[in-house]
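Researcher: Good morning. I'm working through a list of sequences from a screen, and I'd like to move beyond sequence-only analysis. For each chain I'm collecting a predicted structure so we can compare shapes side by side. This is the next one on the list. No need for commentary yet; just the structure.
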Amino acid sequence: MTNLYRSTIIATEHQVFEKGIRDFALDKDHHIENTLQALLTELTPEIPVLGEETFSERTILPAQFWIIGPIDGTVNFSRQLPLFGVTIALIWAHQAILAQKSRKK
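Model: Good morning. Structure tokens for this chain:
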């Protein structure tokens, strides 16, 4: 990520992790993902938990799992704009059977 892109798009005091060209995560993404992974693992230990920030394209997806998108709208979050949210879904038999997206109001 170029410094120009980073300075014009990302306005944050959070630590920034580069994921690819024009793609990044914040330390807050990792914190939310880790917190939700721990909670879901405690509540449903038999169901694996996958997260956007720790997911690998080489991961073989099980038939059932939780998936977490810690901050949808990271650029907005970094600029303190209220257009972001957290997404959690439960996949069962390769189908989404439960999904929740919270957003700041």
